[in-house]
Amino acid sequence: MRSAVSVEAVRRAERAAMSLLPEGTLMQRAAAGLAAVVVGELSAARGGVYGARVVLLVGAGANGGDALWAGARLRGRGARVDAVLVAGAVHEEGLAGFRAAGGRVHRVADVPDGGLEAGFGDLLGRADVVVDGILGIGGRPGLDDATAALLDLAAPDACVVAVDLPSGVDPDTGAVGSGAVRADVTVTFGVLKAALLLPPAGQHAGRVELVDIGLDPADLTATEVASLDVADLAAAWPWPHAGDDKYRRGVLGVVAGGRGYTGAAVLCTGAAVRSGAGMVRYVGPDEPTALVRARWPEVVPGDGRVQAWVLGPGLDPDAGDGQADRVRDALGTDLPCLVDAGALDLLPPRRDAPTLLTPHAGELARLLTRLGEPTERADVEARPLEHARAAARLTGATVLLKGATTVVVPPGGSPAGGGPVLTQRDGPAWLATAGSGDVLAGVAGTLLAAGLDPLLAGAVAAAVHGRAGALASAGGPLDAGRLLDAVPGAVAALRDWPT
Ligand SMILES: NC(=O)C1=CN([C@@H]2O[C@H](COP(=O)(O)OP(=O)(O)OC[C@H]3O[C@@H](n4cnc5c(N)ncnc54)[C@H](OP(=O)(O)O)[C@@H]3O)[C@@H](O)[C@H]2O)[C@@H](O)CC1
Ligand SMILES: Nc1ncnc2c1ncn2[C@@H]1O[C@H](COP(=O)(O)OP(=O)(O)O)[C@@H](O)[C@H]1O
Ligand SMILES: [K+]
């Protein structure tokens, strides 16, 4: 499990560690770790550090201090290191250390208006590595125009190394402001910060390197956001046992598709079959039922006893084909329900039984608007965690928000009581294809029917869906049929996936 904490928790842990250590120790450890990563990048790209060009972009706080001390170390290895001070203030000890090591210092404030390119174009355009020491955990989202313009001067093939966090993101929520840094590597200190696991900030971080600076793990137990790794997935997966039969393993009922929309019914039931549900029942009108039976003869048509329901993929609540009533009936039971797509419109104000909502950004905006919080899709995309939490709070359900990074928020919006928010980013962008969400619903349904709680069922399903996507795509285009065909292999590989 990769775990991340809040800024408040990091600051507390840092204060505790600092009280036991000589002043400046943590920053020196951070700088040493940062310099080591830069050395690694330079060695890989050009065979060594000597003579490499490194430019530090330095903000007002300790994040800039880390960059300056790392720059001093890189000077010691023979790199040419320039620091560009982007703010009015600077970490003075770091600056003195950098100067003493022979680093050159420039100030954005010394360049006349409109002169950034003339002043820094050559410097940044020739840099092998650009170190983003602009903002860390003290940062608010967004960079000013001059700083953002400076970043644009870097050569496209320069390696951008972010210090602690890519600057311009919100450290706790993962929201991203304008001009935020896009890093190739982020070197983070002591513990992952929540933004590194959250969309969209996590997608700005590149590869994340965690440097141990000696914080006490006992001070870092308040996990805010976590991502399941392969060991967690293997531990959570409901592997069958000799004593099992199909009923004990879990029967899933599916109300999907309808008159005119048939594909979702075939894909969703198929994904449930392929992810190992004990049995799948499909409930719907004649046409999708016939197609489901033709493709998946093991699916049992019609109502009957189930352990969980998947409701809504490809379902039009206004079609007048009986599907809306079937959804309402299932929502009226005390069984776990996954509520997707068209069924989201039918969700009652409150449901006490375990409930997993699986909207994409547009569907979440629509749901929040219906619940009295007018929201646009773009709002959800800019601040996914905030909006998923709002839906969890308003509905009392677990909310899985789909996207390149899937966010699963426990009922009530967490973290109080419900455990951390889980995020998964396991699959390629080829997963953004029609029917992909129907496959996810089927896999998550299998897990609900097997008895997993909605938070774990959602996160495990998202991870397996992503891994199946990676297997099926192998770098090329993907369709939902091949995605669901890859699900058994993705599940089997959980026990021997290379970590
Ligand atoms: N604590 C420790 O023990 C250790 C900490 N370490 C390092 O310290 C980092 C945290 O340092 P930090 O607290 O000094 O904050 P940092 O992120 O450098 O910047 C704050 C400054 O930026 C400003 N500012 C904010 N947003 C802005 C914006 N959008 N645009 C423009 N300006 C903005 C803000 O202004 P203000 O809020 O005062 O208005 C303030 O002046 C941490 O991430 C890690 O790298 C490591 O060395 C390990 C030990
Ligand atoms: N850029 C992306 N990278 C990786 N996965 C993605 C990306 N965009 C979407 N996905 C995943 O693909 C699926 C799309 O689901 P959805 O939007 O409901 O599609 P549909 O309704 O066509 O089935 C979700 O599981 C989502 O997390
Ligand atoms: K930074």
Automatic annotation (TrEMBL):
It comes from the Bacteria. The keyword Lyase applies. Residues 229-494 form the YjeF C-terminal domain. Its cofactor is Mg(2+); K(+). Residues 10-221 form the YjeF N-terminal domain. AMP binds at residues 402-406, 437. K(+) binds at residues 63, 132, 167. Binds 1 potassium ion per subunit. Catalyzes the epimerization of the S- and R-forms of NAD(P)HX, a damaged form of NAD(P)H that is a result of enzymatic or heat-dependent hydration. This is a prerequisite for the S-specific NAD(P)H-hydrate dehydratase to allow the repair of both epimers of NAD(P)HX. Homotetramer. This is Bifunctional NAD(P)H-hydrate repair enzyme. It comes from Angustibacter luteus.
